[in-house]
Amino acid sequence: MGDEGASPREVVLEACRRNNTSLLTELLGSLKTPHDIANLLNNAKDGVGNHCLHIAASYGSYEVLDILLDQENLEVDPIDHLERETPLHKTIRFINTLSPSQWESASTIADLLIDAGADPRIRNKAKLKPIDLVDPRNKDLREALQKAEYSMTVGDDVVLLDPKDEGPTGSASDSE
Question: 45 in helix, strand or coil?
Answer without folding.
Answer: strand
